[in-house]
Write a structure and sequence with these properties.
The protein is mainly alpha-helical. It has eight helices and four strands, in the order βααβααααααββ. The longest helix is centred in the middle third of the chain and has 20 residues. The protein starts with 6 loop residues before the first strand and ends in a 9-residue tail after the last strand.
């Protein structure tokens, strides 16, 4: 590289290191002082504490978590996941309320990220719309499903199944024996071995 080239080293989630000595982050941050063509950016999930890098003033930019309106607007800027058997008009009418409900019941309390929020919406949307796809008759003599009827029909989706969507498994998941499509998988312990 030429002498005018600049390199940027971005370390994302660096504050989540396990068993990192207290001198690791200050040393990484000072790499830019030792190597003139290097800039080091530390991306943290928390606000830096005083003397975090063993320096009096650490320049930093704080990005607060998204508000409910901001997070739902970001998700709603893209189209709902397509579900075969569901009209685009029906999806576009029900999906905004679904996204808000997912945020309120699952995402907001956990302060999750936008990619996790989007992933949960994508995972649960087809299951939420299953009564429409399966041609089930809406309760109360109505001719078509609306959000409130789907919510009542799928309330368990926002309990056990929704909470399961929040969990990131280290152990690969395998479908349970005799479970149909869309059933929650259980962790398989086969690939895991105990230390001897």
């Amino acid at each position: 590289a030429s002498s005018t080239s600049k390199f940027v080293l971005v370390l994302d989630g660096i504050d989540k290191q396990r068993e990192a000595p207290g001198t690791l982050l200050p040393a990484l941050a000072r790499l830019g002082e030792v190597i003139p063509s290097l800039s080091v950016v530390l991306v943290l999930n928390t606000t830096p504490r005083p003397l975090f890098l063993q320096a009096a003033a650490v320049p930093h930019i704080s990005f607060p978590p998204y508000t409910r309106n901001e997070a739902t607007t970001i998700i709603l800027n893209s189209d709902p996941p397509s579900v075969s058997g569901v009209d685009v008009e029906v999806s576009s009418r029900i999906y905004p309320q679904f996204v808000s409900t997912v945020f309120d019941s699952l995402v907001g309390p956990t302060a999750s990220s936008i990619p996790v929020f989007r992933s949960i919406c994508d995972k649960l949307w087809a299951q939420f719309m299953a009564p429409v796809v399966n041609g089930e008759t809406p309760p109360g003599g109505s001719r078509e499903w609306d959000f409130s009827r789907l919510l009542v029909r799928n309330r368990s989706l926002f309990r056990q199944q929704g909470e399961a969507a929040l969990v990131h498994h280290i152990v690969p998941e395998e479908p349970t024996a005799g479970a149909g499509a869309g059933a929650i998988a259980k962790p398989s312990l086969a690939p895991v071995s105990a230390p001897s």
